[in-house]
Specification:
Length: 313
Amino acid sequence: MSSLDRFSFVVAANCNAHNPSPFRDPPEGHRSHCHAYRTEEFAIPKLPRRLEGHVTIVTGASSGIGLSVASAFAAAGSAVVVNYRSHPAPALQLADQIRSNGGKCAAIQADVSNEEDVVRLFDTATDAFGRIDILVSNSGVQRDASITDMTLADWNTVIDINLTGQFLCCREAVRRFNSQPAHSRPSRSSGAIIAMSSVHEIIPWAGHINYASAKGGVRMLTRSLAQEVASQGIRVNAIAPGAIRTPINKDAWETPEALEKLLRLIPYGRIGEPEDVANAAIWLASDEADYVTGTTLFVDGGMALYPEFRDNG
């Protein structure tokens, strides 16, 4: 028997649809607001239900790693809040799929770089499920350019979403964890935060200075916050994916030539899949990792191990 269930999701390439309710199906004619769609296939692992009774918010969960993480957490027994910013169709489709499989899910629109939106996201999630136990802070963007061509808007957009968004979501999660009664906790910790970082929290990346700077900031945010809230029973960790097969980096793996070039940077010899990250996130969120806090788990096939030095440099 296969250990994976595969589902296809329709992802809007450019969508200006109004925000539908997170608790019902999209309105008739919803797709007419979107200019183009593509279909992505994601694997939902058949996992032990390690997160039974938990409630998880996954930000940036309408595609790629976030969508896979949300799918896997639902399969592991957690109620899931699928957050999206501007592409509701795949988030609503995932929520429908989770509910049809007997799970609990709500799709909620929010911009993680907006303070009021973040508070509303947590308020709506709490109204839907009664509490919050896990945050997977996954939202991120790229605006690539050389330093001489990078605009202030390019810099600010990436820092606002990739770093300030992490701060706003983590701050709100800590507030909620501390306000919830201890007797109702489904796990040993008061709450768990997983920040989605990147191998570029330690690997410099020319032409992506805004992105690498944000991810370097996520590294220290994770460690500093973990130090601050450990005594409150809250665990804070990060995951640093390497090259993962998602639409955002399609140019790097779509052709045999591109993939061959990419694999030179991966000692393990294969590109990562979104479920590789999702499996790591489930472990970090579960009681199996209860003694783990303040660390970054690299899910990268060895990309951060200086592969150019395999032959003595």
